[in-house]
Amino acid sequence: xxxxxxxxxxxxxxxxxxxxxxxxxxxxxxxxASGLTKGALYYYFSSKEELAxxxxxxxxxxxxxxxxxxAQSTNSADVVQxxxxxxxxxxxxxxxxxxxxxxxxxxxxxxxxxxxxxNEILDYFQKxxxxxxxxxxxxxxxxxxxxxxxxxxxxxxxxxxxYRASGDLAMLKRQHQNIVRMCSKNSKN
Length: 189
Known about the structure:
elongated
């Protein structure tokens, strides 16, 4: 029961932070939406900041275990298939989370003042970029793969931002098709 309450608080905070933003979401709103007491929230989390770290950790763990893992194979024969699976999982995730990428939203919302969350957020984006690099390094030199990966991540995040604004995943799907084409057409030979 205890861990269920903790998880419920994290889930509610995730939804509210994604929808309203970190700053605009009050502890009271999290308590009301979770159906728990303030005391219960403070039993698990000493502050809103600590709760935000738990939210960030949960998002990162999901991506590590469900999406980023798809890029870890070193078998170059299936790089296109892995990229397609990776992209499909990203699309499914964001189609269920129409308020966009929580960690990108936090970065945009908090700007330079996000220093407290900076390392966790950068780690998340670096892992995502490393996934693209793993796809591209099978088909082009490593330094080129790094550049393509950084550009791909920036483009995908821009598409996710536009999806939040428009509700249309078409731009993200097109960018994902471009990534798959780049995985298959660039050749080291």
